[in-house]
Amino acid sequence: MITYILHNIFDILNTPTNVILLLLVFIITYGLFSLRKPSGFPPGPMGYPFIGNMIEVDNEPLVTLAKYGKKYGDVFTIKIGSQPVIVLNTVDVIKEALVKKQNDFAGRPYYYSLSGLMAEECEDITFGNYSAKWKLQRKIGHQAIRNYASGDKLESLIRYDAFPSFQRAVARENGKPFRPHSLIYLLVGNIILSMCLGKKFENDDPEFLKILEVLNNLDQAIGNGLVADFVPIFRYIPTPGVNRLKKVLKEWFNLIQNQVNESKGKFDSGNNDVKSLIDDLLSIQRKAELAGEDLAKQLTDVNLRQTLADLVGGGLDITISLLDWAVAFLTYYPDVQFKVQSEIDDVIGDGRLPLLSDKGKLPYCEAVIRELLRIRPVVPLSVPHATTVDTSVGGYVVPKDTWIWCNLWNVHMNEKHWDKPEEFRPERFLDADGALLPHPDSFMPFSAGRRVCMGEALAKNELFLIFTSLFQNYTFKVPPGSKKPCLKGHCAGLVMRCVSYEVIAIERRK
Ligand code: HEM
């Protein structure tokens, strides 16, 4: 048949009907071919030609993956467009991959929007390929964060600048209902930007608002990803989605690069005063160069601005989402809010804002933060991984370059590990005397292994300080006549967000 077609191709193509017929045959064959799973891959749902399981997974990713898990087991394959993805659905297989075989699963898949455009061809930490240069880039980023995560820098930033500025913004609401997300955005934005750039901002500072606006536009332009992520031909077609993303990214890179240049100019003129995380990154990199670490010389300006972009972009969005969930849940459950406030009142009182040294003394508050991270793990499917070599997981052989999703959400919702997992119950993290229990293996909001969240230590300290400061100073209530916040999440890109809601904030310390 094929030989016949090849020999008579020009005769066949001589009428429009035949051309259309041939095209149809090609499309149908390609469509059927796109349904095929690579041999040896774990089982999974069939899906549709061209799009695979994309519609179901895009609509309700967490519900859909839980349903597939029940049918196909701990490890299964889905298809996003023509791209096969292996989903790891339980703690055992996730730990086998990310901890036991951590090097094998430390890669990242290539997404055109995130790895290509946003990370300037994988030059950042989050989407960078697992390599010696990437390890050094992560080490430098990690070291710079560590200098801020503990100690006075973070504490004083919150106590003296960001939180008082947040209080002034709440006071301007004058007891009227407002959306906490927008004020939390300004609060966390102020902390992260002051930390990264060494600048202090009032909430209405035009430079500050411009950076937040660009970040917000970036978020919207990325949305749930681009078609070009899964259908490669769209990378070469200037679709409105790609054009919009490129435009916002140009603005974002300009903003970030200007900050890097300011810092570099300072260092080049002999001023080695470290005032911000970007100064830290530069000084650690220069020390590595002087110590003869040749790889440090390979870290370019693009790597530097991408590391900064990872810290600003990643840190901001995820932390804001968790705090937005915190206000939503504690407004919904006033009894939990009351217990949080009573513990803070007993231990700290109202004479000063909370400090990191209070951490061990507020077990109930810590249990609430943990329960929030369990019930709403803000990066529920982690950041996608890829295999770096031929390997195996859950008894299946997995070839190099396979895309892997780790379903952290399902781990936190597994009845084998959590009693009534859908209930918000902070006490599950406490013993009978109210002391904090060590958290179990099945609690993994920051993921695990080589790619474990780089900001984990900073995030935990930041969440503790902001959370306790918020509830020490305010009681959040549902506005009269309004409904309680909706606690059902929705996934936008990699992040699980709260549906927008309103509260009133009643000041507790007059
Ligand atoms: C509530 C707070 C946060 C949560 C729940 C969280 C969670 C996560 C998760 C699940 C991952 C993916 C890990 C993997 O690929 O297996 C991740 C990666 C990452 N996070 Fe976080 N994160 C938080 C805050 C932060 C903050 C504050 C920063 C930085 C300032 C940060 C920086 C990063 C970076 C750079 C990566 C990529 C690491 C890599 O690819 O090696 N995160 N985070």
From TrEMBL:
<keyword id="KW-0812">Transmembrane</keyword>
<keyword id="KW-0503">Monooxygenase</keyword>
<dbReference type="InterPro" id="IPR036396">
    <property type="entry name" value="Cyt_P450_sf"/>
</dbReference>
<keyword id="KW-0479">Metal-binding</keyword>
<keyword id="KW-0560">Oxidoreductase</keyword>
<keyword id="KW-0349">Heme</keyword>
<feature type="transmembrane region" description="Helical">
    <location>
        <begin position="12"/>
        <end position="33"/>
    </location>
</feature>
<keyword id="KW-0472">Membrane</keyword>
<comment type="similarity">
    <text>Belongs to the cytochrome P450 family.</text>
</comment>
<dbReference type="InterPro" id="IPR017972">
    <property type="entry name" value="Cyt_P450_CS"/>
</dbReference>
<dbReference type="Pfam" id="PF00067">
    <property type="entry name" value="p450"/>
</dbReference>
<dbReference type="InterPro" id="IPR001128">
    <property type="entry name" value="Cyt_P450"/>
</dbReference>
<keyword id="KW-0408">Iron</keyword>
<protein>
    <submittedName>
        <fullName>Cytochrome P450 1A5-like</fullName>
    </submittedName>
</protein>
<dbReference type="InterPro" id="IPR002401">
    <property type="entry name" value="Cyt_P450_E_grp-I"/>
</dbReference>
<keyword id="KW-1133">Transmembrane helix</keyword>
